Amino acid sequence: MKKVVFITAPDTFRDEEYYKPKQLLENANIEVVTASTKIGELIGKFGFKANSSLLLEDINPNNFDAIVYIGGAGSSIFFDNEKALNLAREFFKLNKTVASICIAGVILANSGVLKDKKATVFVDGKDTLIEKGAIYTATPLEIYGKIITANGPDIAKDFGEAILKSIKH
């Protein structure tokens, strides 16, 4: 069974960016594990509740097929979090799917994995992507090999489908 880890802020993550891709992946028999800076209940911007069963420092990239960084204001706690940045680098080096939605694209930019690659992000993160060497496209969804970036909640379903397609191949 394929497994994906969602990196989710303890609060103010964007609800639909979490539950739409998660539901889509689970409906395709993909196991989704939620990880955060704490174990237990996480609260989305609009009150959606998720459950984290894994701490960032306990993630072993060899146990997962993809890593997905969920957006929303809360994801800013990961922008300079070395554990979060190193995980993006490790998954990338292992040629596994690395994905981010909304402002969480800043995490991938700060990790260095977007350098010289086409990527998109919520408009507030545009300058960081460019500064870190990404080729900012301003499109809703960007797929560059095994790197998937999306610009926000409106594209959450398509983002989930892109992740599913990436890990199935």
Summary, kept brief:
The chain is α/β, with parallel strands linked by helices.
- Uncertain segments are none
N to C succession of SSEs: EEHEEEEEHEHEHEEEH
- SS content category: alpha/beta
Rounded to the nearest angstrom, the radius of gyration is 14 Å
**Strand content range:** 25-35%
Strands in their spatial order, largest beta sheet: 6-3-1-7-8-12-11
Helical amount: 25-40%
Mean pLDDT: 97
Record field, number of beta strands = 12
What distance lies between the first and last C-alpha atoms, to the nearest angstrom?
Answer: 14 Å
- Overall 3D shape: globular
Largest sheet: 7 strands, mixed
- Distinct helical segment count: 5
What does this structure look like?
The chain has 169 residues and is an alpha/beta fold. The protein is built from 5 helices and 12 strands. It has a 7-stranded mixed β-sheet, with helices on both faces. Strands 2-4-5 form a 3-stranded mixed β-sheet. Helix 1 (15-27) runs parallel beside helix 5 and helix 2 crosses helix 3. The two termini are 14 Å apart. The mean pLDDT is 97.
Tag the structure with descriptive keywords.
3-stranded mixed β-sheet, alpha/beta, 7-stranded mixed β-sheet, about 170 residues, 5 helices, single chain
